[in-house]
Amino acid sequence: MELPYVVVIILFYLGIYTIIMNKNLIKIVVGVNIVESSLILLLILISFKLGGTAPILDRKYELVVDPIPQALALTAIVIGGSLIAVMLALVIKIYKRYGTLNVDEIRKLRG
Amino acid sequence: MSRVHKIFRKFYKIGLVLFLAIFLLFIFDEIQNLDIKRYLSEHYISEGVQETGAINLVTSVLYDYRGFDTLGEATVILTAAATLSFMTPIKKVKMLGTEFTIIIYQTIIIIIPFLVVLGMNLIFFGHISPGGGFVGGVILAMIPILVTINYGITFSENKLKPNHKSLLEGIGAIGFILLGLLGIFAGSNFLASGQANFGLGNPGELISAGLIPYLNLMIGIKVGAGLAAIFNSLIKEG
Amino acid sequence: MKKKLLTFILTLALWLVFAGHINFSVFLLGTLVTIICSIISRMFAAEVFRLLLMNYEVKVSFVKIYYIFLVVGAFIYDAFLSAVRVSKHVFEINPSFSPKTVQIKTSLQNLPSIMILSNLIALTPGTLIMDFNILNKNYFIHWIDVRSEDEAALKKALIGKHEKWIAKIFE
Amino acid sequence: MITPGFLYLAGALFLFLAINNKIKYIISFLITTGALIITFYLTPGYSLEINFLNYTLIPFRVDDISKLTGLIFTLSGLAAVFYSINISSRSNLQLIFLFIGSSLTVVFTGDLFILYIFWELMEISSSFLIITVSDLTKKTGYYFFLMQAVGGLSLLWGVFLNHSATGSLSLNAIEAGIPFFMIAVGIKLAFIGLHTWMPQTYSKVPFYVTVVLSIYTTKVGVYVMYRLLSGINILAYAGLISALFGIVMALRQNQVRKLLSYSIITQVGYMIIGISIGSAAGITGAFFHLINHILYKTVLFMVAGVVIYTTGKENLEDLGILGSKLPITSLATLVAFMAISGVPFFNGYMSKTIIKEALQEPVLIWGLNLMSFGTSLMFLKFIYYAFFQNSNINLNRKPTISMQLGLGFLTIIMLLIGINPFLLENLTNIDVDINYFDIKLMLSGIQPFLWSVIVFILLKKYLVKEYRRFIYYDIYREMAKIFVKIGYKLSIYHNGKLSKYLLWATTTLIILLSLLI
Amino acid sequence: MINSISILREIIAYVFLITGTYFLISNAIGMIRFPDFYLRLHASSKCLIAGSISVLMGCIVLEGISYISLKLIIIIIFLLITNPVAIHAIAHFAYNYSIKPQKIVKNDIKQ
Amino acid sequence: MLYLILAIILSIIITFYRLIKGPSVPDRLAAMNSIGVMFLMILVLLSYYFERKIYINVALVYGVSIFMNVLIMVKYLQKPEKGGSSD
Amino acid sequence: MESAVWIILLPLLTAFFLGIFKLYSDKLFYSLVIVSMVIYLYLLILVINDSYPPKVYSIGNWGLLGINLMVDSFSAMFLLIIAILFITVIIFSLNYIKVNKHKFIILTYVMIAGIAGMVLTADLFNLYVFLEVSSMSSYALTAIKKTDKSIESSFKYLIMSTFGSFFILLATILTYYLTGTLNMAEISLEFKSVPFMIKSTIMFFFIFGYGIKIGLVPLHAWMPDSYEASPIPYNVLSSGLVMKSAIYALIRLLYVIFGVEFLTESGILNIGVFWGVLTFIIAHTLAYQQSNLNRLLGYSSIAQIGYITIGLFLGNEKGLIGGSFHILNHGIMKGTLFLVLGIFYYSLKADEIEDIQGLGYKFPVLSFTFVVAALAIVGLPPFNGFISKWLIIEAAIEAGFFYAAFFILVGTFLSLTYYLKVIIKLYTKTEKKTLIEKPDLSLKLPTFFLGSLCILFGIVPSLPLSLINNIPKFLLNNSEYIRILLGG
Ligand code: NA
Ligand code: NA
């Protein structure tokens, strides 16, 4: 198995681990970011071809990497970024309202 | 008792994630032994330049083959900006953060024209070189962001009012759709460019690739304004 | 008018460099973009134009260009010199330092020149600006190896030279 | 052909137009009498088919039994509506119309789908009637609705089982799902163990609602039992046990309507036995008994209602008022008593006799005698309080004319049937080859009554006794408590901790993935 | 003749590149070895800037006169303007962060 | 060329140590800045290695982003309050 | 089939224009809202009418090279829900929403665009994008009240939902990797040669990801919170459209990409049915515990999703019809309940069970509507919920899932326990309460409209069923869908 894929899995693992293990809201957001990065890395990886060049064809090239995952990655980045922004805004709000970043202490809603 | 419970819980969590990782490892391993089919991308690579007129294939995927996705993600940014703007208070803004020295102020001022030109370049040359609306928009968004961290949010919002930002965002998004609609008016489908005979020109030239440069511009405006708005909203909390 | 023209030319040049090729459409678009650029720059950073204040004679501006080259040269020279020094320290077995914080008052009035000077100081061997007091125009400099008062004076003198050049350009 | 059920249902809608009492009277009169007349002129054998959801449904089908049941239903509907029209609010009257209409539709339906729908509509309308009628009946209504819902749902399950087994929704092809039909019918019939809703409901709700409910609820159960479960002999014994249970319970009651409720259980026992033996005679007997029972039980509930209406109280002791102060009511009470006790020349005698004649097995015959004996016994208690116990309670107000009319109307019909038992047969073209006025039959009919009089006189002090403490164990309430407790536990686990929720999610994922391995 | 010029050019270019790389490596090692934050920052500023300029100049020499060289020059100017400022910003931040410069004499490093 | 790139990658890896270890936030920032610039160099060198000069445009944008990163972080990272953790 | 793309574009354009108009003129804002709503209704009807046989619209005229939209009966059914709920909610919100009204309306339009996109697209990644569009606006709408609770619930929703999105995206990427295409038809064809294990893994990722958004039971915990804290008109859309669009997408993926044979083979149908049963039993049990009506209705929504899941996972014709019909019906019924509750909240700030005591006498017609919808959602005849439950149960029995069918009846009983509690509270007299604000016609009319649909679709189910009956043709037999999508 190729190393980059292992890196993807490790990143994915780390992100999920951060999300479910941490009590700190900011760290959870960081975890989300890590998972997203791992997925984007995966997208880049699947577009990769050994010896391929970037899909900007100013002349003829022998081997060009797959442009679709790159476009998808861009989309995923933008979506992920927007999500993170909203998340952070909510974290700020929560911190102001609840005075804590501990995820288990923000619970007025239950039952 | 509770400590044992806690330890158990921790190991349980670790076990879960470990299982997931190992599972993924096996799946990825198995996937790599399979034949990969890339008919679609091979088509894009061999015909994409002729079909869309853009030599940057990522751009041609983003704005032509899969332009609809781009509309969707533009909407996501707009939604995020709108969300953040209603979550932050309009009044009573206190600026957080450490004060900069005059040295930093001056540098920021100097690089603003540089950023404008760079951003515009990325946007307008998005179809013939690396770049495009998103990157260009991000670079452009750095200008108000720099001004904000430099002179404070009040000054920044005085120069470029939040309303103007949302106006710009709206113009970008509406422009994108209207450009897409041109395809329909030209007798083809939504977001058609080459298919609707909007001159694709000679690939590699500035004026080529049909609608793509204009779509790039719209996205650039939208992303720029949206990011600036998002940044300001995020730091607004005092 | 002159300064607007200069800005225009500079930004257009930048555009053309970024564009990577010149033809009519690129140029036309560049003109357009440059206008937008100047609008945006004026909007956010009116001061940028003071940097390019050009109400001197042509002769004077040639002198300025000379000093600009001088300063840039000093920049690069200092950078290399200090890099060599630091890298020497890096590979020493027992690197020796005697850091100290020093205050230097500058006579420069113009903000851009203060900035340029600070950049120069940053690249001067062994110096690092930690703070700048705008009221009495004092740089707080972290100095890596000041062993004696003489050395300090020498280095201050070096900075003073840079200061003079910069003053030639802007003031 | 307009079905009487739909006429009532339409009536429920028309009542929205009733802006004043006059219109209310007119609409009610038109609907109730119209339904009666229509039912009277129905021709057995008629059936109507519609297509719904790829099924062919028979919303309206007439045969002898349904016509007979429809007749008594419309007749007592007329009486019940007029009995309650002044007391009931408009919305409650609408619910009553809906209830009666659904019952009638159930009676005339030819398929399980429509049967279920209107069975549920009955349940809904009666429950809402109970819930909205008074502030004191909320919990009762809740209990009632849930209980009935269980019945309705088991009916539905039975329908599904049968449908999947036979592929048909016809009432004539019942093969599977019998146990669930039994539960459904059992609840409607207040079969022992499933009866808990009945005494508390009938005793708590306002008296006119009791009257309405008592006419239809159990009787529809009987009718549906005939349609779905007739001829299952073993059920006869179940009916017997249930009836005996009803007697024991009834004898222990101090409250008029509770006593009457338990007596319903007993009376329904007759019908269960009749239907279970499955012979034509048994079924005829059961349905004649249904008619008779509706008549006298309605009268008795109306009597109880009059007592409540006039005195505001409803203990057995308060019945003393009947003796002198309410002559018409007293007369009706006596007639109903004679009827329910199976005394010859009263209508109850006739149907009990048919059932008894249809029986083959001695156990059942003796059981039937025992039931008659017990019934007489419990109503002797009733009569004792009504006529032999002096009471110093005064009338708060006079019974309304409409109440008296409804009461009198039914009493007269009861008397008519009692004197001329062939009336029912002629009405419905059902032939029962029995000479009711045969001395032997009359003797055997009156025997349990006489025995009961003797026993009552002997054991008066045990029977006429106030049972204060009453051991009451309701398994359904216990089950509900467990349900609530489980829910509370589950609710505690939802403690708002995001990390916990994320953990659940991850665990789910892992479980899903481990299913793959 | 042309050949020797191009060889010379390549030699000059590689000298620049190797010098640059050397500076970058010494930057990295300095980042690790130096005991005090401000000292590390010294390494990080001087070596980094000199290294990067050197690498870029090497590339310029390699490229010759072209648009690419102009772009590289712009990168150089940009780095020259921004990087010392970035370093200054970090130093200023550290100063505000109340990290005090240590007085270090020779002996301290030995241990 | 490849060796130069590898050497720079090596120095990036070395600097990563500082980024991860800290000990203070400014340390990490400085390391980040260093890594950014080194990476920029790699981008430029790669464009020669692969002979795709368009990568230089990427380097340009990347240079801007390094500067922005440092400035924004410096602006908004603050000394942790008492009781909080340092990162 | 031009109008198909307009289904997505019109709300988007409206939202963008509203975003601009909001800055300048209120009058312009509201007139645009109304005009666009009317046009949208017309468009929806146009597309729904023309949905059989299915139509394909190729964005950019790229054919299989680009993104395609496809309208078949399943999507048309969903568009019908959009038509019913969106119009009512917008009219309702015009007077109901007080805080951030402009933003609410704009975000609602965006959300509708996202959902319409999810419903129409036949492209895997495009589906993800529109899923995010609709989710994003959902987070915003959940937080729009800006109370502590709404911020908290929005954050929980955001994190949980993003957690699910990871796996959807991962599955999408893997699918692209394995098939080299994103067109659902082509994926389905290419998938035939993908090994069983990998295919099932991808499927499970999809199921898990969408499962969080759907709210299947252990994944549901964020959902009641979001109901409690968000504005009531949004709850209508949330239960009627957001949850449903997720299950719609999942079903579309499962049946079209994987095909029913694979679903049977992999045993996911059994799992789905079991999961549905688990979901509604637990959700009903929890609903009984709630004192907040929004929460109660939220749990009830989760439970109803359980029924829908059963129907759609049965893998037979009747199940798909029943499940789809229940999607429609639940939207209507829950919409009615929420809107009535909304009026109560509007006029009395009542959203706890205790608060609504006696309102049956204060608002007789509204309360009647509530009762009708409650009985419908319990699944009692003669209302629409009964018909769809009937269909689901029948399908379950046909597919041999007797236990599921039986438990649906148990669930019906459980749901009765708490709805009846609420109804009884409604009709329990109490001391006089003073109205804070009198509800006007713009609040009542949409409510009554939805309420009457509960009865109408119960008595004349053939109206929607004529549309829904075509659904299995393209789901159960995905080759038909594929053939049309491939343009054959
Ligand atoms: Na009865
Ligand atoms: Na009854």
From TrEMBL, chain A:
It is found in: Cell membrane. GO terms for cellular component: plasma membrane. InterPro entries: CPA3_antiporter_subunitC, NUOK/Mnh_C1-like. Gene3D superfamilies: 1.10.287.3510. The chain crosses the membrane at residues 6-21, 28-48, 68-92. The keyword Membrane applies. Keywords: Cell membrane, Membrane, Transmembrane, Transmembrane helix. Belongs to the CPA3 antiporters (TC 2.A.63) subunit C family. This is Multicomponent Na+:H+ antiporter subunit C. The lineage of its organism: Bacteria, Bacillati, Bacillota, Clostridia, Halanaerobiales.
UniProtKB/TrEMBL annotation, chain C:
The chain crosses the membrane at residues 29-53, 65-84, 114-135. Keywords: Antiport, Cell membrane, Membrane, Transmembrane, Transmembrane helix, Transport. The lineage of its organism: Bacteria, Bacillati, Bacillota, Clostridia, Halanaerobiales. It is a multi-pass membrane protein. It is found in: Cell membrane. Belongs to the CPA3 antiporters (TC 2.A.63) subunit E family. Its main location: membrane. This is Multicomponent Na+:H+ antiporter subunit E. InterPro entries: Cation_antiport_E. It comes from the Bacteria. One of its GO terms (molecular function) is monoatomic cation transmembrane transporter activity. It holds the Pfam family MNHE. One of its GO terms (cellular component) is plasma membrane.
UniProtKB/TrEMBL annotation, chain D:
GO terms for cellular component: plasma membrane. It is found in: Cell membrane; Membrane. The keyword Transmembrane applies. Keywords: Cell membrane, Membrane, Oxidoreductase, Transmembrane, Transmembrane helix. The keyword Membrane applies. It is a multi-pass membrane protein. GO terms for biological process: ATP synthesis coupled electron transport. One of its GO terms (molecular function) is NADH dehydrogenase (ubiquinone) activity. It comes from the Bacteria. Its main location: membrane. InterPro entries: ComplexI-like_HydComp, NADH_UbQ_OxRdtase, ND/Mrp_TM. It comes from Orenia metallireducens. This is Multisubunit sodium/proton antiporter, MrpD subunit. The chain crosses the membrane at residues 5-20, 26-48, 68-89, 95-119, 140-160, 180-198, 232-252, 264-288, 294-312, 324-346, 366-388, 400-419, 439-459. Residues 110-375 form the NADH:quinone oxidoreductase/Mrp antiporter transmembrane domain. Pfam families: Proton_antipo_M.
Automatic annotation (TrEMBL), chain F:
Coiled coil: none annotated. It is found in: Cell membrane. The chain crosses the membrane at residues 28-48, 55-77. The keyword Transport applies. GO terms for cellular component: plasma membrane. GO terms for molecular function: sodium:proton antiporter activity. PANTHER family: NA(+)/H(+) ANTIPORTER SUBUNIT F1, NA(+)_H(+) ANTIPORTER SUBUNIT F. Belongs to the CPA3 antiporters (TC 2.A.63) subunit F family. This is Multicomponent Na+:H+ antiporter subunit F. It comes from Orenia metallireducens. The lineage of its organism: Bacteria, Bacillati, Bacillota, Clostridia, Halanaerobiales.
